[in-house]
Amino acid sequence: MNPIKTTILPFALLVAGIAAAQQEQPPVESPAGEPASEFRTFDPTAEEFENFRGDGDIPHEGGEAVYNAVCAGCHMPEGQGAIGAGKYPALADNERLEAPGYPIYIVVNGQAGMPPFGSLLDDQQVADVVNYVRSHFGNDFVDGEFGEATAEDVSAARP
Question: What span, in angstroms and rounded, lies between the C-alpha atoms of 159 and 155?
């Protein structure tokens, strides 16, 4: 077979497939027959809408609430970590959490695949979530040698 034909034919099929995929699709309709966004499948509450279009700060208070809102999606609800699209280290039974300075630094500045949350969380929220992971999931570090993380510790760790 001609090498040009073996190169052009797959390319032509690829271009035809892309063109077909880019053709305008009819709008998605809601059960009531009204056009609906193909990206939005629910109507947010007023609070959800305000949080979404807000200034970017995370409004949750307390370590467990911050963990559930920010951390659990990757580190999992029980802190067991996950491997999939990325590697999310386990927080459960994690000796690296013994001293509060390390998790404070990671939460504020990020590391590897974890984004920095320092601009989204205030000092107290960071201290609360650090204390939460250091005292849950099989960890018992807040009563140990280093004690609890404080908002002052977080403030001192910020760049």
Answer: 9
- The pTM assigned to this predicted structure is 0.66
Place of tokens 């979530």: 129
Per the CB < 8 A criterion, the answer to whether 106 and 112 are in contact is no
Q: CA–CA separation, 69 vs 59, rounded Å?
A: 9
**Which residue type, as a one-letter code, is found at position 82?**
A
Q: How far apart are CA 41 and CA 36, in angstroms?
A: 8
What distances in angstroms separate CA 75 from CA 34, 68, 89, one per listed residue?
39, 10, 7
Q: Which of 92, 76, 93 is nearest to 84 (CA)?
A: 76
Residue 86: Cβ-neighbour burial (10 angstroms; 0-12, 13-18, 19+)? exposed
Q: Which of 56, 48, 50 is nearest to 119 (CA)?
A: 56
Length of the chain: 159
The model's pLDDT over 83-110, given as tens digits with 9 standing for 90+, comes to 887 889 999 999 999 999 999 999 999 9
Taking the alpha carbons at both ends of the chain, their separation in whole angstroms is: 64
